[in-house]
Amino acid sequence: MSLTAAMCDSREPAHILALRFGGVPVSPVMLDCGDLWASCDDGSLLIVERKTPGDLLNSIKDGRLFQQCAAMRQRSQWAYLIVTGILASSLDGHVLANGRASGWRWADVQGALLTVQDLGVAVLYCDGDEQYEDTVLRLARRERTAEKVLAPRTQGRVLTPAEQILTSLPGIGLERAQSILEEYEGHCAHGLAWLTWTGTVAEVAGIGDGIKNQVRRALGLEADEWLTVFSPIATDYATQQMDGTVVGVQAEAGTQDPTGGGGGSEPHESPNGAAVQELQVSLL
């Protein structure tokens, strides 16, 4: 078995982009995940993430490594992390990266690499970038049969766009973001609006005014400003009011959600206790 073609991430350094991988056609492309996509003559697609020891430690620190590995595994069952350098343990149990001491504990790095393998991504080592090409070619020559494929113990999942938006806010981790999305039936905009209202009747996931004020500051809201989502009914009502038409719409204070929808078993009072109708009129 051998390579037939390869795509190398265009953001790789020049000495990596210059590699020919045994003379096959190599195209520089901005890849969605991984640093190298290599097709083999048995129809398999190899996806490789290349990490120097320093980049490996940095990507463990910011969580980028696990996002990258989960994305690779979703694209191909033949996903690999190749560390191009020497990782070793010092006598006091810390990591030596290419012979240099780091503040990392060896056990912590090994735990992170076990998580990578739990996601279904194999981990390989070579002494440096000069051995990277040969390492990839050896991978291509390996026999790949369905009988050898084992499902990973942990299935990786990339954050949804809604989860990414909510978890970017101060005080909102993944668990709280999921609780907000569940409360508002997956409507991120409704949940985001609710996070800007203080003094609400019902709370979600233990989020009170303290966290909401942090969110408001992060969004740059003034004391008398908040976010809301208008439903079609509310928009029609506001339009008719601006046209001078009287509409028989009543909104009892504290009984409707000024986002214009959203789930939840308990009512969410509008900002500062105002009724939905009052909020709409105040915006005209």
How does this model look, in words?
The structure is a single chain. By secondary structure, the chain is an alpha/beta fold. It has two domains: 3-148, Rossmann fold (3-Layer(aba) Sandwich), CATH 3.40.50; 161-282, no CATH class. The protein has eleven helices and nine strands. The protein has helices spanning 14-17, 53-61, 64-75, 106-118, 132-141, 161-167, 174-183, 188-194, 209-219, 232-242, 276-282, and strands spanning 3-9, 26-29, 36-40, 45-51, 78-84, 87-89, 94-97, 100-105, 122-126. The strands form two sheets. A six-stranded mixed sheet has the order 2-1-3-4-5-9, with helices on both faces. A three-stranded antiparallel sheet has the order 6-7-8. A hairpin with a 2-residue loop joins strand 7 (94-97) and strand 8. It is elongated and about 70 Å long. It starts with a strand and ends with a helix. The model is unreliable at 244-267 and 272-284 (pLDDT under 50).
